[in-house]
Structures are given as C-alpha cells and as structure tokens.
C-alpha cells in the first residue's frame, strides 16, 4: 500500500474534511548506472567545496542568494520554514471553475487525495459527487515541503484527484517564444473539410490501456540483445514532410486508406498493433538509417524478440506481396529476411528488404509450380 506524502485538511466553505495526499503515477523508465568506459566501476557525484575540493557534509550546507560580485545573502533552511505561507496543513478551495477552462499547459503533476479515515468518507464523497455532477474543478493553494502550490481539485469515478498547476508567470507566451506560428484561418475550406473527415475516420474511444511505451520496449530489447551478443537493427528514418502543393491529394488518400484499413492506422498509432502500419511515403534516394551494435562474443541462438515473433506470425511466409510487406517495420522485415536466409540483409534499407523478400516469395512460388 502506498504511503501518504502529505496530510492535512481540505476545506470548502465551512466544511472541513481531513485528507491525505498520495502519488498517482510511477516511472517505468529503464534506468542505467553511470560507469567509467572500459570498466565496471560506478561514477558517483559528491558535494564538494569548489575551492578546496573537499566533500561537504549535508548539515554544513546553507542556501545563498547571489547578489553578484561574489556577494551572497545566506539563508538557513529553518528560516525558509518560518516564512512559509500560513495554514500549511490546509487545502482551502477558494472557488470552482469549469473544468474545460483550465488549459492543459498549466497542469504539472497528479496526486490522489483520500479521506484520512472511514469516519470522513461521507463528507469526502459529497464533494467528489458534487464536483462530478457540476463538471467543475476546485482551485486552491497549499504548502508541501516548504513550497506553495496552486492546485486544481477534480472528481474521478471513485476518488478526488489533485493536479498541481504552474503559476501564470511560469507559462511562456507562444507568440513571444516560438519562431513561427501560422495565421488563424490559414487552411482552405476544401482542405479543412478533408482534414475533418480524416480526423473523423481516425476517431477512437479513449482507452489508456491500449497505449504502451514502445521506446522502453526497444531499450529492453537492446539490453537483452547485447547481453546475448545479437545484432540490433534501427528503425527506419521518419518520412519526409508533406509538400503543401500535394496537401489536398495527401489528405484525400489518407482518408481512403484509413477507411479501407478499417481503423488499423488508429490502432497502430496507439501502439496496440505494431504490425498494422500505415505506409509512409519514402523520400526518393533516401534510405532508412541503419546502425548495428555488436558485442565481442559470437552471436548465439536465443528466443526471438517480441517484434520478431509478431513479424513472423502476422505476415506469414507465403503469398505476401510488396504492398503487405511495406506495412511491416524494418525490424520485422529484417527478421523475415533472416528466416529466408537473404544475404546482405543487415545493410539493406526498408525498401530493399521489401524487394528482396518479394523476390524470394516469387522464387518459392515458381519452384512450387
């Protein structure tokens, strides 16, 4: 069971309910240690005095505000605690706003807010249900770990969720920060209609379980492959930018392709089916990027990676033409080329692998006849 990271009271009007704050998310990133190249020795960081080079104990560290010219105002940690905003154990809702009015750029981190005991669940559920029915979010401030936060409190199906928000002066103005922005209404009416049809064709129900981190999967595959001495093939390069002159035709073909594929493109975007790729227009004379990573040990036989298994079971080995082959990723094509024993496959681009596999299929079909 998770541990509370903060406890206090939630107030709205004259109503008060003791609550606890819990982290709502966790990190699934693959973490690496830093090692000195050529060794298995860890690299660690220390707090050192820049003049003497000696390590400084944590209790001997104070905060200093730079006045310039080497002068600092020294502030002790307990002095910061003394000036923290009042009611540091209170989340006081000062008002309610429409949920849609809070722009996504203001959201920072998400926490679960739970009642501190069973005796407080009735008041807690009253606020949760009322927020849900009104589709409102409560705006409040509170102090946690010597820092004040602006927060938005909203209802989920069973729990109150607290979002920490960026302060207004922390959000950059895109008109001042970005080098190029389009003029509003720049899209032409016919192009707009077609783009809306494409969006409609790609519309899906929101189900977060359909999505997963494919990059982290590739990192794990890389680690497993290097540990067993296997070769790694990179994904192909991204497609070329759409030419404005061809925009209408590209939109039209996208709509037709999406409808004919029965929504496979949308599923591929979610990461649910990596083999159901929408074929991208490849720039002429621009082969896919290719990198190989090998260990000093000889390549050994082992279990196929998940993407390899999907490539074999999804496409099959007979009666597959270039159109179907182009829907596979380069990694999947490479595995099929390995199964076919195609020479020079590690140096081939995505399109070259397609051609080689198509030729192998034709030879097999001719031999069978």
Topology as a string of helices (H) and strands (E): EEEEHEEHEEEHHHHHHHHH
Low-confidence stretches: 272-318
Q: Report the average pLDDT across residues.
A: 77
Shape: extended
What radius of gyration results from the CA coordinates?
29 Å
Major beta sheet, strand line-up: 1-2-6-9-8-7-5
Strand content: 15-25%
Number of domains: 2
Number of helical stretches of at least 4 residues: 11
Helix content: 25-40%
Structure description:
- This protein has 369 residues and is an alpha+beta fold.
- It has two domains: 6-25 and 83-170, Beta Barrel (Ku70, Chain: A, Domain 2), CATH 2.40.290; 191-368, no CATH class.
- Helices cover 31% and strands 19% of the residues.
- The chain has eleven helices and nine strands.
- It has helices spanning 77-82, 121-134, 174-177, 189-201, 214-227, 247-260, 264-270, 306-315, 322-325, 330-340, 350-368; strands at residues 6-12, 15-23, 63-68, 71-75, 90-98, 107-115, 136-144, 147-155, 160-165.
- The strands form two sheets. It has a seven-stranded mixed β-barrel with strand order 1-2-6-9-8-7-5. Strands 3-4 form a two-stranded antiparallel sheet.
- Strand 3 and strand 4 (71-75) form a beta hairpin.
- Helix 8 crosses helix 10 (330-340).
- The chain is extended.
- It starts with 5 loop residues before the first strand and ends with a helix.
- Residues 272-318 have low confidence and may be disordered.
